[in-house]
Amino acid sequence: MTEGIDPEGIDTEKVGAWLTANVAGAEPPFRYDRIGGGRSNMTFSVVGANGDRYVLRRPPLGHVLATAHDMTREHRVITALGPTAVPVPATLGLCTDESVNGSPFYVMEMVDGVVVDAPPKAEPLSMPVRAHMTESLVDVLVSLHDVDPDAVGLGDFGRREGYVERQIRRWSKQWAGSKTRDLPAVDELATALADNIPEQQGAAITHGDYRFGNTIIDPATGDIVAVLDWELCTIGDPLADLGYIGVHWSDEASDDGRHNDPTSAGGFGTFAALLERYASKSTRDLSAIDYYVAFQYWRLAIILEGVYARYLHGAMGDQLGSAEVHAIGDGIFDLIDGAQAALARYRP
Fold first, then answer.
1. Do residues 207 and 233 make contact, with C-beta atoms less than 8 angstroms apart?
2. Of 109, 142, 174, which marks where a domain is finished?
3. Edge-to-edge strands of the sheet including 53-58?
4. Same domain, 165 and 248
5. Both 103 and 135 in a single domain?
6. How many structural domains compose the chain?
7. Do 252 and 132 share a domain, yes or no?
8. Which CATH number is 42's domain given?
9. Scanning 91, 150, 238, 341, which has the fewest C-beta atoms within 10 Å of its C-beta?
């Protein structure tokens, strides 16, 4: 019999039986605890009777768009990157039988460290550690973009050319399927972005949500010891990952930074310096980076609208109060403004 809490999203009896049968050394009973807010895929810590610790990932509850939250895809990319220089948790098992838990899920190792996903999380860290975190963020991204997809079995993971064009079509479709109100600026940005796509400089494995909040840090050194949340990974334009960092980045200590990024606490350096480090370790021309920043502001607005829609439809339960839910909806307007400003800076 499985003990511990029975959190929403886990059938403890069936999942416990599956873990015992499929994860080497897993010993029941198991305890399950929710990790993080779960606005996208849901993450749980799992502790066995022998003290062994695991992480379980499953899709969010309720309405899920057909192209999102693919556990098999996420498991596949983490498994493929395991032997490379990109730090990822070891995968331990994948369950595609929905009779076990209502949806597919996978299990990976628990990696020790901290997730520095907000300014207060940076406060205990020294300035040298914060500066090294930025260096590690860049160096790990360069390592990811240097991985040959064919060499790690991901050659069919996505089309190599026309990445941004495909992304604009994809996220426009997502917008049409999840929007809760008409925002003409989103459609206008889609048109402007489609009309001004820079020439793609080769293809690479792209994370799709690369930022400090999706990494685990060694707080003693600032090294990234694991990169998480690969659900948006594909093959495409590597500069899109850099543009996404720019959406979150604060060049100096400020009260105006994004709540889910630590850089507004100060000590992380400037986005320009980050770009210089990336450029020094790659052969890519970064002169069009403002376009990619604009694209990522636009894309993030659509992602956030999907989160907002799930709250409005009750799929996220009562995790947030009404004021917080509406703050998510209002945050989309700031992202639209950011996209428009970045696109105005871009000179093709």
1. yes
2. 109
3. 31-35, 42-47, 53-58, 105-109, 91-95
4. yes
5. no
6. 2
7. yes
8. 3.30.200.20
9. 150
pTM of the model: 0.90
Domain containing 166: what range? Answer: 119-345
- First-last CA distance in the chain: 63
Q: 85, 100, 117, 148: which is closest to 265 by C-alpha? A: 117
Shared domain check, 126 and 95: no
Residue 84 to residue 62: CA distance in whole angstroms: 35
- Per-residue pLDDT for the chain (348 aa), expressed as one digit of tens each? 344 446 889 999 999 999 999 999 999 999 999 987 545 789 999 999 999 999 999 988 764 544 456 899 999 999 999 999 999 999 999 999 999 999 999 999 999 999 999 999 999 999 999 999 999 999 999 999 999 999 999 999 988 999 999 999 999 999 998 888 889 999 999 999 999 999 999 999 999 999 999 999 999 999 999 999 998 899 999 999 999 999 999 998 887 778 889 999 999 999 999 999 999 999 999 999 999 999 999 999 998 888 888 777 665 555 556 667 777 778 899 999 999 999 999 987
Compute the residue count for the chain. 348
Q: What is the CATH number of the domain that holds 247?
A: 3.90.1200.10
Which H helix or E strand runs over 95? Answer: strand 91-95
